[in-house]
Amino acid sequence: MILDGVSKIGILGFGREGLSVYDFLRRDYSDLEIHVFDRRTKDTFAEDLLEEFENAGVVLHLGEDYLSELNQVQMLVKSPGVNPRQPEIVRFLGLGGSYTTATNLFFERVSGKVIGITGSKGKSTTSTLIYECLTASDRQVFLVGNIGEPILNYLELDSPEVFFVVEMSSQQLEDFQGRVDYALFTSFFADHMDYHGGMEAYVDAKVNLFRNAKLTIYNGDDEVVTQILKSRGVLARSCQKYGFKFRVLTDSDYSNSDCSIFLNELPYLSSKDVKLLGSHNLKNMMLVSALGLELGLDKHVLQNVFYKFTGLQHRMELFPVNNFHVVNDSSSVTPESTLACLKAFSSYDRKILILGGMDRGYDYSILNDALTDEDQIVVMPNLRDKITLQLGVNGVHLVDDLDSAISKAVELVDDDDLIVFSPGAPSYNMFKNFYERGDEFLKTIKAL
């Protein structure tokens, strides 16, 4: 077992997952001396939690220098957002220390069937659809990981009959040591280069899931995904092997009304039948359907789930404001996801697109094909120079923050136009995460 022989352990990063790890250690390893390492200061912790720490003898290492005393423990349980390449952690490992993760602690113990989902985009929607399909099929299932509750919270509910649907990020997969029963690969493009240190490391992190899966399912029409799996020697099964075919029924792939899925040459699902916009969402439904057939689920049950599913918060949410419409796509953290959003709403003659966030070196020129001369772009820091150079539209408006971006967009919008909040960049330089960013966008624009 991973924790055998460990007497002093550190929880590295104390958010929701860190608290889950703490509860797990207190329950199953009550003799361990627990240390908490976190950048936050003591006054940001709840009083009852601090009292619990004191009573349990937990040693706190907080503030800017929180990594300076790692040598006081033998092993760390690292949260996914903490980069192990930091000098203090590298030094700790070099001196004989080690680290594990909540994910690995879970997989060491789980007896239920595990479905792992990863990809650069579409993980959350695909994971939720799988969960809904299994629920509708009367299977006992839990949605855990990035999108659900912390994974260790569910060990007490584990049994061989249970399904765990686990959305897995590249940060979780880089040091993943478990094994899943089924794995789905949704999509791939450059992301998280600052965390992984390069494209090859990012690819390897994703592929680590498929190397450790009994069965991997992917869309054989996706040339990038297909090539990655082939180049890494991963044996996988395409949706097409199950009889599925994705077809674009007109010359344009921008409309939401021209794509269909066929099963054994018979109509199975059309974009006209579902509430989710975008051909990428229909392709994710094809992935879920292939898994459903593998699990012996009724295809009509799957179809009914797809018909009813309205999507997740902050992902291409469309709503009316006065005489125009607004899209909240705060989850967009790459230009590829912004491109998918623009394609899904291409039927609007004029769009006001709000971009901006942390510059990770992405190429935004790919958006040019989905923009027209009528469209306007409002750019927040830190992408202003790059967007001005890379996008060929006439109207580029530079602003200082989200509030001024929304004000400018409302100033520019006319009746029947569409304001598209699809930033195409992470929010860390302005917000804690894209959920907080999306909430702020909705609150501000509704007030206006």
> What is the CATH topology of the largest domain?
UDP-N-acetylmuramoyl-L-alanine:D-glutamate ligase
The CATH architecture classification of the largest domain is 3-Layer(aba) Sandwich
Beta-strand content bin: 15-25%
Determine the number of helices (DSSP H or I, runs of at least 4 residues).
Answer: 15
Form type: globular
| Integer count of domains | 3
CATH homologous superfamily placement of the largest domain: Mur-like, catalytic domain
CATH level 1 class label of the largest domain: Alpha Beta
The helix fraction, in percent, is 25-40%
Low-confidence stretches: none
What layout of secondary structure does this protein have?
Blueprint lengths: L7 E5 L3 H13 L4 E6 L8 H10 L2 E4 L12 E4 L8 H8 L3 E3 L1 H6 L5 E6 L4 H14 L4 E5 L17 E5 L2 H4 L6 E6 L7 H4 L2 H13 L1 E6 L4 H9 L5 E2 L5 E5 L10 E5 L2 E5 L8 H16 L4 H10 L8 E5 L2 E5 L6 H10 L6 E5 L20 E4 L4 H7 L4 E4 L3 H11 L5 E4 L12 H14 L1
Parallel strand pairs: 1-2, 1-4, 2-3, 4-5, 6-8, 6-9, 7-8, 9-10, 10-11, 16-20, 17-18, 17-20, 18-19
Antiparallel strand pairs: 12-13, 13-14, 15-16
